[in-house]
Amino acid sequence: MPTVIDAVYLAEAREAGHWPPEGPVEVAIAGRSNVGKSTLLNRLAGRRALARVSKTPGRTRGLIFYDLSVRLPGTGERLALRLVDLPGYGYAQVSRDERKAWQRLVEGYVKARSSLRLFLILLDARRAPGEEEIQLVEWLRSERVPHHLVVTKTDKLRTAEHGAARDKARAAFGPDAPPVSLVSGETGEGVDALWALLLAGVCDGGARPL
Ligand SMILES: Nc1nc2c(ncn2[C@@H]2O[C@H](COP(=O)(O)OP(=O)(O)OP(=O)(O)O)[C@@H](O)[C@H]2O)c(=O)[nH]1
Ligand SMILES: [Mg+2]
Questions:
Q1: Is residue 110 helix, strand or coil?
Q2: For a disulfide at 35, which of 16, 122, 131, 202, Cβ 3.0-4.6 Å?
Q3: Which domain holds residue 44?
């Protein structure tokens, strides 16, 4: 796991096009409302309260950008990386218009952002993927955006159930299912392995050392 030297809030974009200027390579964190996006982001950053964790689902409306500076294990090289906390989807009380707004915002971001290297889709370990996740994966595939499933809240499962949770996540996406990682934002389990995957994903795409 890399050492996170610095982690700071950069900006929130509530409208398509209002993105901060492109800079370091970006990893987007998406998923259903309340799935644990902000909690995982804090874990990755090694900070307790960088991103706001909410008791009320559906709070985050914009895309929130955080800049991290990390020291890579082994070489000690420094790398700038941006994590993007996406607004949650699938919250029952959200209107059709709000749903459309989410789509416009996220699609606009993905299409506009050449620095986007990896799109994480979080799934609750206790739920099967829904129509939203299936459509999102299909769309990311068609846009040729590298993406990865992250099953989170694994602390809610017994260890013996982890394999089944991975299989359940993959099964919904057919033979071309994206890779799956298992994590708990609460305990930090699986976060080292996820970091390794992020670094492989961003470095392959030509990450810019500081
Ligand atoms: N047990 C457990 N609880 C978690 C985990 N991750 C998040 N939570 C809890 O789930 C709730 C939602 O967490 P958030 O990180 O705010 O979820 P979010 O996906 O950012 O939510 P929105 O921004 O509203 O879409 C909080 O009460 C967290 O404490 C986890 O890995 N295990
Ligand atoms: Mg959040």
A1: helix
A2: 122
A3: 3-204
Total domain count, the chain: 1
Residue 14 domain-assigned (yes or no):
yes
Please work out whether the CB of residue 42 comes within 6 Å of at least one atom of ligand 1: no
Assign residue 104 the CATH number of its domain: 3.40.50.300
Ligand 1 near 35 CB (within 6 A)? yes
CA 62 to CA 37: how far, in whole Å? 13
Measured from the CA of 57, which atom of ligand 1 is nearest? 24
pLDDT along the chain (210 residues), means of 10: 95 94 97 95 96 71 95 92 93 79 94 96 95 94 96 97 94 90 97 95 57
In a domain, 209, yes or no: no
